[in-house]
Design brief:
mainly alpha; 145 residues; 0% strand
């Protein structure tokens, strides 16, 4: 059952416009959860889930902040029903975090040296030919150029 089906409150006007995309992303998420983990590292099995979660939140963020295509009421409904990640969107609104892949990459308490993830380092500051790959979400660099 989709997450938004749990609420007894009727979805606001405009929901029918975004519902097919949200349902498609939810189906992709279910497929990613059921996908075989054979031959993958433990962290690699979660990467598709992080990507789809990011994609869903970015879709709602773009519709509301960039394109102004959905109402405040529909945006609040999506956040309340956990269709989009409220905390990730809050980070995207801050300067320097516009392309953030996941919240785990900026949490310093989860790293060995008390710093952010390697994917947050701008590519211009890395040695030439250095391949960046986040262990947590599989991001290949959300820190900029």
């Amino acid at each position: 059952m989709p997450k938004w089906g749990k609420s007894k409150k009727q979805p606001p006007e405009g929901w029918e416009l975004i519902e097919p995309t949200i349902e498609e992303l939810d189906m992709k998420l279910r497929e990613a959860e059921q996908e075989s983990h054979d031959g993958k590292r433990r962290c690699e099995s979660l990467w598709p889930i992080y990507r789809i979660h990011h994609q869903k939140s970015r879709y709602i963020y773009d519709l509301y902040y960039k394109r102004k295509a959905i109402s405040q009421e529909l945006y609040d409904y999506c956040l309340k029903e956990n269709i989009a990640d409220r905390n990730l969107i809050a980070k995207w609104k801050k300067n320097g975090y516009e392309n953030l892949c996941c919240l785990a990459c900026v949490q310093t308490r989860d790293t060995q040296h008390g710093t952010t993830c390697i994917c947050r380092v701008p590519r211009s500051q890395l040695p030439e030919g250095h391949v960046v790959e986040c262990v947590t979400c599989g991001c290949r660099g959300c820190g900029g150029n």
